[in-house]
Amino acid sequence: MLIGIDVGGTYTDAVLTDGKDIIRKFKTKTLHEEIMTSILNALDKVIQGEYESQIKRVVISTTLVTNIIAEKKYPPVALILLPGPGLSLDCYRYDTFTQIISGAIDYRGREITSPDESEIISAGSSIIEAGYQHVAVIGKFSNRNNAHEHFVKQIIEKKFPKLNIYMGHNISGLLNYPRRIATTMLHAAASHLFSTFCDNVSESLKKRNISAPAFILKADGGTIPLTAAAKVPVETIFSGPAASTLGAMCLSPKGQTSVVADIGGTTTDLSLILSGKPLIASKGADVEGFLTHVRSFAVRSVPLGGDSTVTVNNGKIDLLPERRGPAYCLGGPEPTPTDALKYLGRIEFGDMSRAVEAMENLASVTNSTPRETAQKIVFQSCQTIVNAIEQMFKNWEQEPAYRIWEIMQKNIIRPDNIVGVGGAAGGLIPDIAKMLNCNSIVPEHAEVANALGSAAAQPTLTVTLRIDTEQGSYTVLEDGSGGPVNKSTQFTKEDAVRLARDCLLDRAGELNMKEYLTNVEVVHCEMFNMVRGWTTTGKIFDVSIQTPQEILFYMDQGESFNE
After folding, report:
1. Is pLDDT at 10 greater than 80 in this prediction?
2. Cβ(240)–Cβ(451) under 8 Å?
3. Which of 2.40.50, 1.10.10, 1.10.540, 3.40.50 would CATH assign to domain 77-192?
4. Which of 110-119, 173-182, 474-483 reaches the highest mean pLDDT?
5. Which of 131, 189, 291, 317 is the most interior residue, by most CB within 10 Å?
6. H helices present in 208-296, as ranges
7. Quick one: angle between helices 147-159 and 117-129, nearest 10?
8. Per-residue pLDDT, 401
9. Strands (E), 422-480
10. What is the DSSP string of 475-538?
């Protein structure tokens, strides 16, 4: 048995599944100030004291970190930056307390200038005086040589032991310094709160006699053990859209190309499945204006959902990008698209008399009938989502993976299907599909597809190595770790792949994920010769290796998980 739980902006959903059928499912309102209460309510309803010993794993997708960042509920984080020569220092002014100090590493990891200890102490003093407790230390090329970050951390911890220090190379080893700064800052901001959340989940499972391993869903659709997730909270950003994408894959025809529209109460999340594979964003997630290195699906959130507020502006229907509560037919204060869908008989839940009242009130100020008013609301809702999908295709078409897929198709192909999940999907997706001239799929269990997607997700792990045999070193780009290699011109691509596999195993061991590495694949491997004086003096390798991104079962196909 598998359990999937999705903590959404409006509802928290849970499913208990054997990989062939959903045994139980449950929806409850998300209590944003008491997220654990929402999770445990949903968990208890699907277990009901019957299946504890049969549960093989629990996976949770949560908006906790996303909400912490969006609502700015995180503790302030100060920055100590070592940008070295290049751009003007004004380019490194962030909306937080920032100290820029000397010290530089070049792009191959060689020290240019050493950090100044007096500058480090002065920066620490200023941070203490400004009232900060959390500090992110990021050097421009610390992903190639992290010695300067370690040196700064050592000095700060010695002189100012009350400060919590986070180093950039531990969070991301990828190039693009501004993205590494943002990713490290967000990690530092969410670290304590998310660690507490993981501890609470672990303790709650123990009290329920659930000994199965627990995981958190990541933004790239993979899972990570609960204990390891506490160390990388930023990886769980956008786990909600990832859950809806995986849930749609579980419930729709295998191997097809589909746009996934998760129509929730507050927003609609859009993603793309290309020939059965979710499209990954090549440059990392954009989180509330922070450009990060977080690997995620190429998703977009549209500020329109089933509970979006409907008003009248100059005699015309207007959909506001905000939620003031549940739909009027569900006891809420304002009319919403859900009320229009209820009036038109497109959804089963809700109080019809209140839906009629909501449409009549709007019709009285729009010079139209209640039915015409409801139809206008549904049309505008669909048109808003269609416009967002068309705009997203312009973004998706810039992704390398999409371009390669398009070339392989030999012509421009738009999706076979629009797969709708979420509470309002059944009422809107058929019209959206007509507008886009494709098939409409609103599968059974669409209302809990996110929780099902969480249950179906597999652990994933990627390691990307940069190997420089002339320098005699390698770096793991995901966390900035590294080590020595033989300074030999005889080092081959096979040696590079072998080293990458060893690093993947080491990283899996650190994250308690070794048992899930049943298969790995090489996704990229390039080699460049270093030539000096007409002689090859070394080689540079870029190699990436990962566990395949797959799901445990396709319920529509009747395929069960194998674990």
Report:
1. no
2. no
3. 3.40.50
4. 110-119
5. 189
6. 226-229, 239-251
7. 50
8. 62
9. 439-441, 462-468, 473-476
10. EETTT--EEE----TT--HHHHHHHHHHHHHHHHHHTT-GGG-S--EEEEEEEEEEEETTEEEE
